[in-house]
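Z., the sequence and structure:
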Amino acid sequence: MMLLHWSTLEPAGPSNLAALRFSSPVRVRSLRIFPKDAIPFAEQPEIVSVTEPEAFVLDIFFNAHPIFSDPTKQKQKATNVLVPTSIAYAGGYADFPVDMGTEVASRLMIVRGNFIKLSIAIYGDVASELPSTPSSYVPSDLPPLNPAPLSPALDPANSEDPTALTCNLLSLIPDAPPLPLVIRLMFCLKPANDDWDLPEFPYLHPDLDEDPDDFDLDYAYQLTSQPVAEDVPVESLQRFADRVADAIGPKSEAQSYLVAGILSRVACQHRELPRLLIDRIDIQAVFDSSSMDEDTLDHLLIAAANPDIAKELNAANLPKELEILIRSPGLDPYVKRAAQRVIDRLCGWDALLAVIQEPDLSFAPARGVLRDLGSDEPSFGGLIELRAWVGVACVLAAYAWADSVPNELCRSRAFGIMRVWQGVPHYREILNHLLLLRQMIFRLECMMDDDTPTRSGIHAEHVLYDLTRDPRAFLSPHLIKCLLQLQPGFSVINDTERATLRSLALLADDGLPVTLEKLVQPLARPVSADALRTLRVATVLLAHELDSGDPGTGEWTTLNALWAQQTHGLPLHLLAVLEVLAADAQARFSFHPQATLANTSSNARFADILSGADQVLQVLARLIPNHPLPGRAAHGIINVVADLFACADAADTFNSPDCASVAQALRGTCVDVVRALDPELVLRALLRRGADIAGASAAAQDPVRRAHHALSLVDLVLPLSPTAPHGDTVRRALPRILPELAEFFRALDVDGLTHLVRRLAELDGGVLGIAEWLVLEELRTLCAALRVLAADETPPDLWAVKAHQVVVALRLLHDLMRGTAPEALRIVAFVGVEPEPAGLLTMAMNLLLVNRVVVESSGIVGTAGLDRNLCFALALVFLRAVRHVSPTLKPISHALDALKQVPIKIIEPDRLSTELGDALLTLASSATSSSCTPADIDSEAPAALALLEWLVDRSHAGLPQLATLRGISTDTFAQLWDAFADALPATSRTALEHVRMHLHTAPEEDVALGDLNLLPQPTSDVRVSLRDLLRPQSQTQQQQQSPDGVAGAGPMALRPTTPPHARGVLSMVTVSPPTALLRSPAVTGLTKTYVANDFRALRQTPSARQNTSRLPSTHVDEFQTSTMTSPVMMSIPIPVMPQNPYGMGLGPPFSS
């Protein structure tokens, strides 16, 4: 951006016009107006601005000059279209940004306004032809957007004195009173209009020492209408409190009103006055359920804003009397609500003070107390005595005093601070809530009534506009009244925005019927900003109506209003709205960009979409318990909640504080909704969603993140402990969702698998055995995948997927075995001791050895009672691990631990000698290597010696073959022995010689070690053909399916069969109906292929003419036999080979 032009304009003609013509098209980015006598450029002090008058409004017109980007198209003539805009200049240095875009420039600027001279600088760029669209996209990292920290001077929350900022503001006003007096005069004890003209104002204090003969409660009530001086002696306060206590007589409504009024007026007074007064008054002798009317309750509500008074009222059991009043028959609803507000405020102090004393406690209960205390001005004034909200509240008090005096400098500075706070999270919420006070709304409205723009007026316009962005602000009747009378402003509130705000105010003013009309109307996509704004206001109004009155009253009123409009099913209408919002939010992260969701100015902001969805979801959560949704709608809300949960998680990538805070609230609402629904329904829907990685609903989403978010919600639905209140309900639901659980299990990564197994194991405590069943099926998958890897001519894509499955399964087992919790130990015992899982794991270990596959070692053999065959297989695996892991992991030690548990009858001498010889050859090679360190040999030398001693012992016990080491020559063995002698202490020399005498080597030369197959890591990039991967009956699969269920047997004939094979609920191959096959006398195997009329001929036999409840069959010759196949049943049930080699092929639950 550069300086395009500087000049002083003077209007001409009756229309007060001035014009600038640029020598070439330019894109204007900013206009800067300088006040009179200012020096715009420091390097040219002779240039002085002469802007007059001090404030005015300008209408500016730019001619639209198009910029063409396509050189193949003929350039059009420049148009004479003028684009208008208006700016309000309120004096001083003022910058006005101009957004002209990239496709339009201008050569002419026309200025019109009631000004005499205008010193203006124009900044921008010289327009050029836009570059052509690039043919390829090169991604690049976006720079992080770190929000600028708030200046310490504007951050009272982190200041030692949160009132310092307000004191600086008051110092701008001559003879300003102290801050405590300002607070009392502006909010609590407002002076009469005549008091402002008195010479001693604002120091008008009551004389508490005056003791007239007719002193009574009414006199005390009038005396406390003015603020007490800060320097009044405590003795005077004590005497006043004694006189008030002495004036109390028999219990009556009039006396209760006066005492409550006195307490409300002293609640914000000198700190000692309310303490002394409440200490001397007998609360129980003044207040009971029969002596409190509407006005008395209003005074008690204000008095309860003082913590000392609230404490004594609680101690006097006033809440109990108020509850008796609420239960009175025929009580006016307003009185009932007022009594309940007093009870809530009295009880809320405990939650607020607990948070102040213990900052680690949840702030949610205290937030409601603060919101209530800041809802009316007298209570708000008493609240400032606390250290909560001090900074913001005091600045508002200073602004109110500066506006009353008036003092433009202090007022404009206070407005500037407010505008900064409205852009800062947490400060914004506090400020906007306090700005809804009647006095604040009235002051903002008065600031905007001036015909001439002022700084304070423009600030007030921005503050009011930002205030209306929160839909909860439209619950304020003061704001509604202001917006209905609002006139177009000079800045952000133009005619269009004014019409929008007026329509929202009318919506809030018209009440519930119009609100329901807006909510039941279909919401179009993409959601526009105005439509979303209306929806959010309507949702807030509905939520407020549902929560008003007695429990159930608001809901009944809502239903009557809905029925009066001939409409029903409010939850279904809200669900339809929520689905549109969720779809719009998901489109921001879609893999398939949609033209309808282009980033235009009319589209809603992402943070607003999430906030609107959160508000609608909260109302739905309020309605669902009394209005259960039908099955399809219930599944719909679960899917919508899952979509919103995913969007809330992805909102962190926007690096926006607004998105982060809204997303956090939305996540909490989503969790509350899914926990409130039926656990079986929720878990089934979430599991199906997470497993559907190839469906139409998941086509535009990242399948990994989709499964991850589903797992997160499943984890939140599952109880945190087995003894949780709804733990039994969830446990009863789990056996009914096993098919969905199995499908979902296949879609998770290693960390997700481990976490889910541990959570299920912790939940059922081994009673249901669901976690064990999942581990068992994973072992079957591991064996099936290893068989595919062992087959010849396995396609590369299939090999890559199966290798990935092997690594995932092994990593899952590895992570499960490393746990120390009781649930983890139970899984270890199940895998290592139970015959079926131990047999599968043994088979998998043997297949790893046959395939020469590298596997990470894990010390799991210390478990007592481990299956002996598994121990031997693990020992061989650990010996193989010597070749590819660091000696510091001690694989030989693990191998020795496993072999010590193996009886002689299970040991296979040839395999053990071969693996041990390769391990010793590896150690010998590393001992002579230059990269070897003494620590490498030292770490394994004791274990190697112990293993060789065990080998000698077993060779003498009946296995003499073990005395011969294979694969290592005599010379190499001698070198290794020398290395052991150097590494071991002298006390081990005898054992070394003993082992050396009883072991011998066979070959004269070392056998070359075979290559190991390195499997990919679970996080590595596996590139396969998605079309073949997701096709249920792919050509590759059929060519690799062998009769015994092992891939690699070559192609098979594709023939149709009758009866057809059906897919079981857990992807098992089944026969339907099996009894028909067993009855047929012509069946010689598990399947039968029919040609022409063979089937009808078979049905003519007497034994076949039975009612088998089958539908009539048709000829199968008409089908194309080249595109169909008859899968062959497996001869043994374990391990089960999946029909789809790319899947994991879980078998039916609890089957052996």
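The CA atoms of residues 396 and 545 lie 30 Å apart. The longest strand covers residues 17-33.

Let me know what you think.
H.
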